[in-house]
Prior knowledge:
Mean pLDDT: 87
Bound molecules: adenosine monophosphate, zinc ion
Structural class: alpha+beta
CATH topology of the largest domain: D-amino Acid Aminotransferase, Chain A, domain 1
Helix content: 25-40%
Distance between the termini: 42 Å
Low-confidence stretches: 1-7
Largest sheet: 5 strands, mixed
Strand content: 15-25%
Amino acid sequence: MEAMEAPAKSTAAAKTRAEFLRAELERHNRLYYVDARPEISDREFDRLLRELQDLETAHPELATPDSPTQRVGGAPLAGFRPVKHAVPMMSLDNTYSIEEMREFDARVRKALGVESVDYVLEPKVDGVSISLRYENGGLAVAATRGDGKTGDNVTANARTIRSIPLRIPTDAPVFEARGEVYLGTADFIALNAMRAQDGEPSFANPRNATAGSLKQLDPKVVAARPLAAVLYATGELVGAEFETQADVLRGLKKLGFPTAKLWWECRGIDEVIEHVDELDIRKDELGYDIDGVVVKVNRLAYWRQLGATAKAPRFAMAYKYAHKQAQTVLKAITLQVGRTGVLTPVAELEPVELAGSTIARATLHNEDEIKRKDIRVGDTVVIEKAGEVIPAVVAVVPEKRPAKTQPFDLFAHAGGRCPACGGEIARDPEAAAWRCENLGCPAQIRGRIEHFVSRKAMDVEGFGEAIVAALTSETKVATTTDDGLFGAQTEERILPPLVRDVADLYALKPDDVELRRPNRVADAKKAEMKLATKLCAAIAASKNNELWRLIHGLGIPNVGEGLARTLAQELGSLDALMAADAETLAKVRDVGAIVAQSVREFFGNARNRAVVEKLRKAGVRFDRVETAAAGASPDGYFFGKRVVLTGTLANFTREQAQDELRQRGAAVVGTVGKTTQVVVAGAEAGSKLDKARALGIPVLEEAEFLAKLAE
Ligand code: AMP
Ligand code: ZN
């Protein structure tokens, strides 16, 4: 038996074996708890752990505080010793208002004297904050926040948390990682169920359960609780440096720390606000409770410039989700027709106050949802507003249902006809939706034009809903004629719609636009003409847009902005996209069978092809692709990093390596400095490599470089 032989092993052999086992156990631990892809069975893991325990018992001089054997929990503590934080752990200013987020952005920009600031948006984890101090790579101290200056030493307890690495692969003498300890949603429910069985009181919420567990004096009890951690910041660093918050998150992940699954680098506050809603919708993917988001200025140099108040930093802000509900009466259900022809049911409500605004309309999602919740006209309903998401009807109050209501049936409700054009409607089995079948439906045309000119598509300035409506439908206008004989005469005329598809926009003349301008002031012709001319100029300018904008603007089903960028980058022109067969499309990153089919169907349609040809005739460019990093994935290892190449690579010339890096969004720079983030070292690398080592910059050898490129 191996364990029996252990005492006989020479100390040197035992030491080597113990080191091997520690590294191996930590690797498997990480695969299991952080990466969620275990390579060995639990039994195999336990066998390795037992072997290490036996070795440490036989050779007590080999036991170390960062050994995985410590994860089961050491002896009970008498109390927690205080720990002074080298860098204070601050609180955050917070708000429930998007308006105040914009004010925060305005303050930041003003203080920095810049026009736009990049931010990182992260989940605000509802746990207990912790600071993990690694000295020479080993976990030395874990501390709670306490009053921000001094916290409690909870190292023995933190060691039992499996997702916290006991060692990290860094040369930095001091590396403090900060984040939250939490209990996952499912684990919290299971823990409470167990406590109920044992006749113990249940915890009010995961946060309380986490705080209670961390403050246990017996680490063995803590070890039995399925606590987890997520890291998002650094404290004191010696021999390590980061340039941006995004680098911090990527760097932590690379060192083996668990980091948030969802976070975004955002250009400006508008992008932040978009993702605020996205995160609210997707927060279940995280597996733990969040109470909002945290917005942080991305560049750390700006952090130093902005500083902090006594309580909170000026470079970050928390936005908390306010899930507020109210009750009101559903007066009617109307149907809205979108650009794809889908009929969306909308609740017309008795106006009611909710989270600071008056709500008169709310979304009902689709017919299936209405049926599932059995929502009927006349019902008293519960509406909810989550963040900045459009308010939604979430339930009915059955006790308040009046007599003689009817279950909702969309087809009957619409009389079988599109409310916008009177065309026939048909059920789309895949989308759980009813659609207007008429491609010439003015509501659909309007929707398509609005999408085409929108900011994330062709980005034509000066368009609003009203002018789009005026251009796509018949317009009644008063014109004044003065033939000199009878004096000025005012006449009402009906003008035909000018725009039936997106290509018609490029044929618009300032005169036509001027006539149709909403709320047009007939005797301010000069000012009106000026605006109309400006709009036409903006339309003309969009002919030179980058290809992804055009692809996105066409409104191909299932092709959003991100995919449009990828398709543009990888195919290079609209003609190539039109000609692409299923096989070619399948090779494009992120393109699956559904997208490939929708692209093929879209261009297989003669009407769509005719629109494309009209766009070509109008002079819209089909092939403008920015080569730099436009298509690089922000999740890639090299994205946004400053990389230095040194030495000779066997598989690449210097130029090829540079190209590969640039395509992935890296900035290739010539000299190694404090801001360098990665050094790629080929054979016979010289002083640059020495310098990188001295500065603690991660170095990739050719094999690792190849692996990272392939990721
Ligand atoms: P509050 O306790 O409301 O003042 O919020 C500040 C606390 O939010 C911080 O001290 C952290 O413990 C916690 N927090 C949770 N997630 C994050 C995050 N992604 N970034 C920064 N702080 C976070
Ligand atoms: Zn219609």
